[in-house]
Amino acid sequence: MRITNVLNIRLAPFLNSVIAILVAVHMLSGCTTQPTKVTESEKRDFEAIIDKSARPIELTDQTVILDARSSFDYGLNRVRNSIHFPWDNLAETTASGEVMRDPHRAAMRLSLNGIEPHTPVVIVGYGGSGEGGEGRLAWTLLYLGVQDVQVATVETFRKNYSANASPPAKNVPVWPVKARADLQVSRDEFVKLTKDPKGRMESRTWIIDVRSDKEYFNKSGSKNAPDINAIHVPWNEFYNDKGRPSQTLKAKLQAVNVLPGDRVILVSNKGVRSGAAAYALLALGFNRVQNFTAGWNSLLTDRS
Fold first, then answer.
1. What percent of the chain shows pLDDT beyond 70?
2. How far is CA 283 from CA 29, 57, 212, 288, in A?
């Protein structure tokens, strides 16, 4: 993989601009800034996905398989007993990427497909060749309180393909959603953080832009695009060739001082690819991860 060189190159401008700040903070504090302590409760929050992310997926009679691909591709080949369920089924609109505002309505959609907080869910999609829909859906399920969610490419289950239509899902009672507001960051707070690089360094807060090379370096083609001083790691670097969270990414991020206890905020155009990256980091044991669901596009709406 090329991520090490990519990170070194793309981190350089950002780190050069804050080295002086780090030195000043060190001199004033008289000690090295320590990573945020990870509490036992935080470790338990995502225990299921952390434990399972490094192991092959095992399907059981209780597993609900969601297919996040297009309806056309789902019709061509599907995993036996899978349910077609794109990421935007739990979004307010496809255009904005905003999470569904009414959590009860989201819970109803999940319950109709047999999903409740403790249901093991496997989401299949295109992997790195797609746009991160399955990872964004996985992040949304975590946000809504579903605890056991895994992702993979649909090809992983080729032996389980079926030409037959899936049977109707077994409904479960609608459950009260306790949305994990800490898994996303508001537009106002994001903008505030972009304007305070010193505060971000002192609090060990990182912004990672997961868009493509072209989008990152061309600033989405807009001369008015803001400079958010973000690290650039394309979203598909967070996954391996089987569409599973990349186990090597954790060490590579730690090598450039992005640690599991740090606050990490992911940004893409409208929160889809950044949601996929956020899920991957949570599965790798990063416990203070947030998706900027308003997305890069929202930063351009009020700029002349």
1. 82
2. 33, 14, 22, 12
